[in-house]
Amino acid sequence: MRRHEPPFNGKRFLLNQNTGEIHDLDNETDSCHIDKIEKEHIHMDDSYMNCLIRAKANNCPNPNGCFYCLPTKDKG
Ligand SMILES: [Zn+2]
């Protein structure tokens, strides 16, 4: 479910900059716990690739897709 308030701003992909996990809000599940992610750890973007680039630029530990909402990009 997309959220239109900051820091989400209606964008589709969410990078948790603390963990490197990338979520697809159009495919969000309860197990994603999006509302528990600290706001200062959130980076929103229009594509998975942009989130990945951002994660690598910020030396995130293990950038990859969420097991629940982006399983095709999940690398564990
Ligand atoms: Zn997710």
Description:
With 76 residues, the chain is of the alpha+beta class. The protein has one domain. 13% of the residues lie in helices and 18% in strands. The chain is built from one helix and four strands; from the N terminus they run βββαβ. It has one helix at 48-57, and strands at residues 13-16, 21-24, 42-45, 64-65. A four-stranded mixed beta sheet has the order 3-1-2-4, with helices on one face. The longest helix is centred in the C-terminal third of the chain and has 10 residues, at 48-57. It starts with 12 loop residues before the first strand and ends in an 11-residue tail after the last strand. The model has no long low-confidence stretch (mean pLDDT 95). The site of zinc ion has 6 residues, from loops.
Would you spell out the secondary-structure blueprint of this structure?
Layout (H helix, E strand, L loop, with lengths): L12 E4 L4 E4 L17 E4 L2 H10 L6 E2 L11
Parallel strand pairs: 2-4
Antiparallel strand pairs: 1-2, 1-3
Write a compact overview of the structure shown.
By secondary structure, the protein is α+β, with helices and mostly antiparallel strands.
Order of helix and strand elements from N to C terminus? EEEHE
Q: Count the DSSP helices.
A: 1
Sheet with the most strands: spatial strand order: 3-1-2-4
Rounded average pLDDT: 95
> Which shape, going by the Cα principal axes?
globular
**Quaternary structure annotation:** single chain
Total number of beta strands: 4
- Percent of residues in beta strands? 15-25%
End-to-end Cα distance: 23 Å
Helix content: 10-25%
The residue ranges in which pLDDT falls below 50 over 5 or more consecutive positions are none
Main sheet properties? 4 strands, mixed
Bound molecules: zinc ion
Class based on secondary structure composition and strand pairing: alpha+beta
Query: Rg, please?
Result: 11 Å
Q: How many domains in all?
A: 1
